[in-house]
Amino acid sequence: MVNETPQVMTIAGTDSSGGAGMTADLNTFAAHGIYGANVVVSITAQNTQGVRQVQMITPDMVMAQLKAVADDLAIRAVKTGMLGDADTVHTVAKALQQFDFGPLILDPVMVAKGGAQLLSDAAVEAVRTALMPLATLITPNIPEAEVLTGMTIQTPDEIMAAADKLHAFGTQNILIKGGHGDAPVVMDYVRLTSGDHFWMKTTRFDTQRTHGTGDTISAAITAQLGLGLDLKSAIIAGKAYVDATIRDGILVGHGYGPLNHLAVVTAQNQPEVYDDI
Question: What are the coiled-coil residue ranges (predicted)?
């Protein structure tokens, strides 16, 4: 009877306003009916208007948390969020090679919604070399994909070329999120090692309440994997969930408000899936 309840984990920073980071991940896990463990790598003082201060947790304490979870829980899938610096990235990479936490969803959080840089230049290189080869899926938005690849990405062909380059770094599967910008539709691109690749299309919803969107979709995919879905189905379900959390908004804060993690997914939220555009 021990550890029969499905369990997943987030390795991320806190958000004192509750909208992003570890809090968004745990809210997403709970909304999917799955148990969530959390390893804290940083503490942030932030709200919907921006990040005010960041305090990193020591690498020894990060490793101690990871070992404590590994010694007792049965984690089926794990995601990373804001990792902050190169020492933390290398610590997490070492633990992921030492402990079996299931598939890794890597959300390369680099810049907060308000513009604050959350990943140092040295940490970006550590993500490329130490963490990306371990990832089952990486979920950058277009600006993050530009940093990781060194490319300018504006067209569908450039998005696909960026996915090729990310794959060359060792990542198995890629989801490049197209939500930045102001186009009337959002097009996300997925490339899988199976050879399958597709686009997910949703209609843009005009709102500033999008704080924690990247955390939420990666956490939703992690939760779906923990519940037993295959990767393609988990990605599509994660996209539908985050669309629902944006459309069924809540009124919190004066800036980029948080999502509604208790939103109910309906047929309206299902993305249109295309092999080509």
Answer: none
